[in-house]
Inverse folding.
């Protein structure tokens, strides 16, 4: 499992610093349109559409792309610190098992439940040391986490119902739906009219990172991990992402890194260890009874 999940943790840990740079260059909707255009074109002309129902691709596109990143980009643009953003979206680790329980009947193992509680205590410590102007960015960050959790369950639903597809193909085709709505929103909001050629050029490196590395590459490993194991087993590993996000926020943007954040990070690691131990024991029992 680690060989699939660990690259994602590193890539997505750096994600939030890149987002902060990008949204302040061209705005959230323009950056999102660039990101998903780069993630889908020209790759879509060389990779076949996954053999899954069309509605499956659309629902995944709306949850993983339009909901998660549309909300998150706006939250960061409104002033949500990149370190705090990396934390708030990890609330998907709570939403994913709950949505999986409601939609798929997947039970929450005891070790995972304990890991979630311990890790959320860590999140509480870290958030207690953060300050944001107004509640709106925090609400948007939590809503982004809900969208991520929903996208995880969409993938898990496809696995349960026997859908067989290449994860890269799903991500690329799901990304192809997004440049148009994000582009329209960028035009309506006035972002495109205010952006200069220099601004777009400056936003290109963040968009390439977000489009090719953080979307195509990272989501390939993430979707494959969820399809191979379960959404409940994979989701808690994302709690390692904020540790990288907080560190980069402190180094690059001078976002405070005090005792509470360090304590919270330690609790998150403890939660991950508990979850990993539970998954290992469960897999050993399943292989022994097979």
């Amino acid at each position: 499992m680690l060989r699939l999940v660990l690259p994602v943790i590193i890539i997505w840990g750096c994600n939030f610093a890149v987002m902060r740079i990008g949204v302040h260059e061209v705005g959230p909707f323009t950056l999102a349109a660039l990101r998903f255009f780069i993630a889908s074109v020209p790759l879509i002309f060389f990779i076949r559409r996954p053999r899954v129902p069309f509605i499956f691709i659309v629902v995944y596109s709306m949850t993983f792309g339009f909901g998660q990143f549309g909300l998150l980009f706006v939250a960061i643009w409104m002033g949500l610190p990149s370190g705090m953003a990396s934390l708030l979206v990890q609330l998907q680790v709570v939403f994913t098992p709950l949505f999986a329980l409601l939609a798929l009947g997947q039970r929450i193992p005891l070790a995972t439940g304990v890991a979630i509680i311990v890790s959320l205590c860590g999140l509480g410590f870290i958030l207690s040391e953060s300050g944001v102007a107004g509640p709106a960015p925090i609400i948007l960050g939590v809503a982004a986490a809900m969208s991520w959790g929903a996208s995880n369950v969409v993938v898990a639903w496809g696995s349960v119902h026997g859908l067989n597809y290449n994860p890269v193909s799903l991500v690329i085709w799901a990304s192809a739906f997004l440049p148009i709505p994000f582009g329209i929103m960028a035009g309506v909001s006035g972002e495109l009219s205010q952006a200069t050629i220099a601004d777009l050029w400056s936003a290109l490196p963040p968009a390439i990172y977000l489009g090719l590395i953080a979307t195509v590459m990272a989501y390939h490993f993430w979707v494959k991990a969820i399809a191979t194991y379960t959404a409940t087993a994979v989701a808690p590993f994302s709690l390692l992402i904020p540790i990288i996000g907080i560190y980069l926020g402190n180094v690059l943007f001078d976002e405070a890194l005090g005792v509470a954040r360090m304590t919270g990070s330690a609790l998150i690691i403890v939660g991950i260890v508990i979850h990993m131990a539970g998954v290992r024991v469960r897999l050993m029992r399943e292989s022994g009874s097979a």
Observations:
- The two ends are 20 Å apart (CA to CA).
